[in-house]
Fold this protein.
Amino acid sequence: MDFSEEQIERYSRHIILADVGPEGQEAIMNGKVLIIGVGGLGSPAAFYLAAAGVGTIGLIDGDIVDLTNLQRQIIHTTPDLNKAKVISAKEKIEKLNPDVNTIVYQKLITSENIIEIIKDYDFVIDGTDNFPTKFLINDACVFIQKPFSHGGILRFDGQTMTYTPGNACYRCVFNGPPPKDAVPSCSQAGILGSIAGILGTIQATEALKYLIGIGDLLTNRMLIFDALNMNFNTVKFKRNMDCPVCGDKPTIKELIDEEQAACDLN
Amino acid sequence: MNTYKLDITEEHCPMTFVKTKLELTKLNPGEILEVLLKEGEPLDNVPKSSEEQGFEIVEISHVENDIYKVIIKK
């Protein structure tokens, strides 16, 4: 535990906390978190994890910054238009906290590359915007027993749960992607920008709790909020023995790229 | 048993307790840390925060002028 004077000051509010302390801060600084999707959820998650001093932050996203992103994807700014999202985010992270080692993957995550990418990280944050990728992340994380935070947002609503090995996975709750026509298109649905901030920040908090080893994670329960009425609820569920990926007789034994839903947010 | 010493008379809140806590983490249970601090905020808060986080305040004594010595046991 050899913090520099600058680190002692920077992380003083963590070090003071009884449940974090120098040991917890050291755990954060030794931590490696991968953020899949550097958009609405990934932006606040990346900011808070960087500020907290997470040792290594991986960013994967194949997109470039578009004007329509800036209403909610707060790590990107107007001068970043047309820049790769991972580069834009890396620049902000390095400005916020030079202690952080940022690794970027400027590509889409697929069944071919996901295991290779996630295997070196302690915790994965799903900040993606489409069901096929959410299921791909779930299945890959279950296959190699990698903890991850699921997050989803639409309009004024959000939902999130955390998977850790042995506990319920995303497929225990939702068997598979909804039918194509059940998914509203982006222009029909929309999203209040700050909703992304609420949810991405919860995901970052789960990652930090996991790294430090404190509190109760959102395992075996889904946190659902409705920001219009500002109601937060948690729905409990158990690991499903018939789950196609983590059940007793799994039917999904290899990773697949399911068909992209109608809404392919850019 | 070693006795550790820490001077935080030049520090301000919250670094007063941050430095104290960092020093306390180096101690083994039962060991003693002597902290020199100023009256006012440090004297009000460092002993209180230390107790809240499970450390024992053995003694507080006046050293000179506005400087106090707090003896904390882990």
